[in-house]
Amino acid sequence: MPAVLPTLTTHPFIRKRSAPVIAAADLPYPSSLVFNAGVIKYRGEYVMVFRNDYGTDRDAYENRNVRFAGTSVGIARSKNGVDGWRFDPVPLIDSNDPDKDPEIRRFYDPRIIQIGDRLLLCLAMDTRHGIRGAIGELSADLSAWRIISASVPENRNMVLFPEKIGGEYVRLERPMPVYSRGRDRFDIWLSRSPDLVYWGRSELVLGVEDVPWANDKIGPTASPIRTEKGWLTLFHAVDRDETRGKNGWEKRWTKRYTAGLMLLDLEDPAKVLSVYRAPLISPDTPLETDAGFRENVIFPCGMVEEDSGEIKIYYGASDTCVCLATASKDDLLSLLV
Ligand code: BMA
To answer: Which atom of ligand 1 is found nearest the CA of 294?
Structure first.
């Protein structure tokens, strides 16, 4: 794989809304960066679960070394999934919650999935003993949650399929095998469970080497969408270029995150039917390339299918705000031949 990859562009089938769907100033509690949000349609509304990092700003970060005070996971609702978001007054989860298990440092990068009448969350969970992937269940009124299961370290980017497949729950996940693969060469895996608690029969789905424009790592994003041709599935793909310097608030940020597209077999979703050969969404608007905490980052956690055939893709832009891109399901499927 090349050490430095060329300019990457967003596929013309994708339409990006120029303004963020939500940004830090919209939240009713402290927020510096609000990003990486899962979204579903639930009881006639769109429900968004988002990550919020708080407690500093660009000036304090760059000039006075003031780091983030905490990370929370919050909920917002909207009638149309685009604007008019109403925020719950306090976060659902807060890393500074005095009652939290001291082993757990924080939760982030939430995905929300409805399976039957159960509302499930997939979260990255930083602990004192490693990064774990957690699955939680939300109460029907979205006010409370509990952990159902958590992986051993090092695992992250878990996302459940929206229905049982072959009688089992199925999740995509991204273990981080630093010893055996070296550096960040991480791939997408799949595991199955009879009850959301015990996970096994794990299989490799897609290796980073199968993604021509990634030279670093890949990982799952939003819950896949069932189509007549297979599971329409986004993934994130990362290329690293050591010549990239200061790209955001940090002294150095050398990675670029794009979103790729693949189709998984309906009955056996560990089987990849097709991978589109180029990125579907690349960071290429000013908000994504020239502003924000970490520039050049597109990180989708939510995908919603409309009756019209439109697919809404919610993604974190530059680890700073939540943005929305749309595409037609048929157009996306036409890329996966
Ligand atoms: C990953 C996660 C994401 C983040 C991305 C880019 O490792 O931490 O939350 O969006 O890096 O910084």
So the answer is: 12
DSSP annotation of 289: H
Ligand 1 pocket, Cβ-based, cut-off 6 angstroms: 36, 108-109, 257, 294, 297, 299, 316, 319
Hunting for tokens 């031949």 — which residue is that? Answer: 337
**Residue among 185, 178, 172 nearest 232 (CA):** 172
Contact (Cβ atoms closer than 8 angstroms) between residue 220 and residue 188: yes
Longest dimension (CA), the chain: 55
What are the pLDDT digits (tens) for 65-102?
Answer: 999 999 999 999 999 999 999 999 999 999 999 999 99
Alpha-helical (H) ranges within the chain are 58-64, 178-181, 286-289, 329-334
Residue with tokens 């003031």: 66
pLDDT digits (tens, 9 = 90+) for 193-211: 999 999 999 999 999 999 9
In ligand 1, the atom with minimum distance to the C-alpha of 299 is: 10
Question: How much is the pTM?
Answer: 0.97
Q: Is 309 left (phi over 0), alpha (psi -120 to 50) or beta?
A: left
User: Which residue has 């929305």 as its token pair?
Assistant: 324
CATH architecture of 15-334: 5 Propeller (2.115)
